[in-house]
Amino acid sequence: MNVETKVEFDQPVVQADRFCLRPLQPSDVGLIEHYASDKRVATMTTSIPHPLPPGAAKAYVDRSLSDKREEDVWAIDGTATGGSEVMGLISLQRMDRNQSEVGYWVAPPFWNTGLASEAVEALVSANPLGNATMFASVFQDNPASARVLTHCGFEYIGDAESFSVARNATVKTWTYLKRMG
What we know:
There is one protein chain. The chain has about 180 residues and is of the alpha+beta class. The chain has a single domain, classed as Gcn5-related N-acetyltransferase (GNAT) (Aminopeptidase, 3-Layer(aba) Sandwich). It is built from five helices and nine strands; from the N terminus they run E-E-E-H-H-H-E-E-E-H-E-H-E-E. It has a nine-stranded mixed beta sheet with strand order 1-2-3-4-5-6-7-9-8, covered by helices on one side. The chain is globular, with a radius of gyration of 15 Å. The chain starts with a strand and ends with a strand.
């Protein structure tokens, strides 16, 4: 995997075999809106509402491009290998003490293809923020995402709960940790 620095956003592009992870761009709004509007995607995240309000995808992309952002977001872009421009998103939410929380979703047409595992692996290997530790949590009714994390070397550290906007409910989660280097 090669890491190239994309100076304008101070966010690297991470090359993987089937795709690259690249910063979002305004032209991504349509595909993000299309996939994030899918209830199956929204209900497995804490922050995507369902139904997705008009303008929400554009506001998300705009926030991801801000110099004051606290979360770096990458599109999983498969165009170099004949894939879709946006097959999902992956992010690192900055935390204190040189830590980040990994978040990701993959569009339904790409489920069960290993794409999520490859994206998490690529981002963890690149460690673009130079983190000492990465965390992630998944809803307990989403064992496929739990398998992605354990496949990528994350260790289960306990149960918790998170609020899901799409479900309008608090949902039980499994929390994972990966110590870097």
